[in-house]
């Protein structure tokens, strides 16, 4: 039997059985999503989404603008089974059992993502059909993407030109170029995927990056997204990162952003087996079960000493805003502004309060990353732009061995040998599962649920924006 447990933000009734509690400070069973095999879970600040074998996809929380909703999504056309998903407040990305990729948006339904290698350019004699295919900014009927091919300058008295056209026989979805996607991950700035052959995609196109050493063969084994940055892991244990780097989350020793995957050289001397990306921080686990972290430490999410007495002003305003939205108290939405603009609150008929689409990202506009580097005058760490080892204070060597790690917006949870859970970082809504709402900048052991038996196993760990989900598998009792 499998049971889903959840702790953290419950302002939109993500756990219907605990609807009266906005904060869930300990792992509680999500009774609506148990007893059947759980294939995947993801958490956004406004809803929890679960994939179950035989039950498909179910969203709990703020759905279609309605608080406390439970929505069971019908499967995409001709799809029998969803095996993996990733979610943002705006959309879902899923993989099916036959390797297809679909995206779902509220009020828009399902749309197939045509994933595949770029069609091979072939040379054809110039003809009207080829002219139409290669017209600048023509919309591809197969992918819905824009094809922008700049025509060559005309030359006087030259023979009829041959031009490049896209050979649709080897395009996405064709028998000769079938792509079977096995994982997706999405953030605010990226939608990425991984296929069964070890090719990574910035959906829908293959991801281009410079491998090290040059010309080596690198099969990608995992991809993950944070809010604005991404990581990928290769079969050789190398980690590449790209995207936004303003809080050191790329691990390159700077706050610069990267347009395409770049090798994290500080990790290149070891083999990495697990990667994770949070809002603006990252985590990896080495082959020796050691945990390394880098990025933003504003709430202690790197388990490094920081100033928890005075959180970022902009995020304090966001917390008040969301609490007002969830408790339907419009008079509480008169929040102090951050250093720049504040988030908007929308009222409908003077009754319903609609929160912003992405409060945390909006709040970052009032946070100056340039002033957040490590303070040489103190031991406080706000930004750690290179990987740093995190010590797990287990009583035995087994408890110190990191097996899995997951990152939320500003918190981190680690699974070690012996089914031990450890948490640190932002804990305003109890997302660390420690039984309180005090943030922690040091590793602290998370009490296991009361129903955890000796033969139970932590099968899955998922941290989302402001919550944590744990799937526990318990063998049936012998008759």
TrEMBL record:
RCC repeats: 237-288, 419-474
Name assigned to this protein: Uncharacterized protein
Record region (Disordered): 151-171
Coiled-coil spans in chain: none
Entries under SUPFAM superfamilies matching the protein: RCC1/BLIP-II
Organism: Tigriopus californicus
């Amino acid at each position: 039997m499998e049971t889903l447990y959840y702790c953290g933000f419950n302002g939109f009734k993500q756990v219907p059985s605990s609807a009266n509690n906005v904060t869930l400070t300990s792992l509680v069973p999500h009774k609506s999503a148990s007893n059947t095999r759980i294939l995947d879970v993801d958490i956004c600040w406004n809803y929890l989404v679960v994939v179950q074998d035989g039950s498909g996809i179910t969203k709990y929380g703020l759905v279609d603008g309605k608080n406390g909703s439970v929505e069971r999504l019908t499967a995409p056309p001709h799809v029998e089974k969803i095996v993996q998903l990733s979610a943002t407040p705006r959309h879902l990305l899923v993989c099916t059992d036959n390797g297809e990729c679909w995206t779902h948006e509220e009020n828009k339904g399902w749309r197939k993502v045509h994933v595949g290698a770029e069609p091979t350019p072939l040379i054809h004699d110039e003809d009207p059909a080829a002219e139409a295919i290669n017209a600048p900014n023509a919309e591809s009927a197969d992918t819905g993407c824009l094809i922008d091919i700049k025509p060559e300058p005309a030359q006087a008295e030259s023979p009829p030109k041959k031009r490049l056209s896209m050979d649709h026989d080897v395009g996405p979805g064709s028998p000769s170029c079938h792509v079977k996607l096995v994982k997706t991950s999405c953030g605010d700035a990226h939608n990425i995927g991984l296929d069964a052959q070890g090719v990574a995609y910035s959906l829908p196109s293959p991801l281009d990056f410079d491998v090290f050493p040059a010309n080596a063969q690198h099969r990608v084994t995992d991809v993950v997204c944070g809010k604005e940055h991404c990581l990928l892991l290769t079969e050789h244990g190398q980690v590449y990162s790209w995207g936004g780097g303003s809080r050191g989350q790329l691990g390159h020793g700077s706050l610069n952003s990267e347009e395409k995957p770049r090798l994290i050289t500080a990790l290149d001397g070891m083999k990495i087996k697990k990667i994770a990306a949070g809002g603006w921080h990252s985590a990896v686990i080495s082959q020796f079960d050691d945990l390394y972290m880098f990025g933003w430490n504003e709430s202690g999410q790197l388990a490094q000493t920081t100033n928890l007495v005075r959180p970022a002003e902009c995020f304090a305003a966001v917390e008040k805003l969301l609490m007002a939205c969830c408790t339907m108290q419009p008079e509480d939405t008169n929040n102090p502004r951050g250093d720049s603009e504040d988030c908007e609150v929308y009222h409908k008929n003077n009754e319903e309060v609609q929160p912003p689409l992405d409060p945390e990202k909006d709040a970052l506009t009032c946070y100056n990353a340039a002033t957040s580097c490590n303070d040489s005058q103190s031991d406080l760490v706000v930004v750690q732009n290179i990987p740093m080892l995190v010590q797990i204070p287990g009583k035995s060597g087994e408890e110190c061995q990191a097996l899995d790690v997951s990152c939320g917006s500003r918190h981190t949870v680690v699974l070690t040998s012996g089914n031990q859970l450890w948490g640190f970082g932002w804990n305003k809504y109890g997302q660390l599962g420690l039984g309180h709402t005090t943030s922690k900048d040091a590793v602290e052991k998370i009490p296991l649920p009361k129903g955890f038996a000796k033969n139970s196993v932590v099968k899955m760990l998922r941290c989302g924006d402001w919550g944590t989900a744990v799937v526990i598998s318990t063998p049936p009792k012998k008759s």
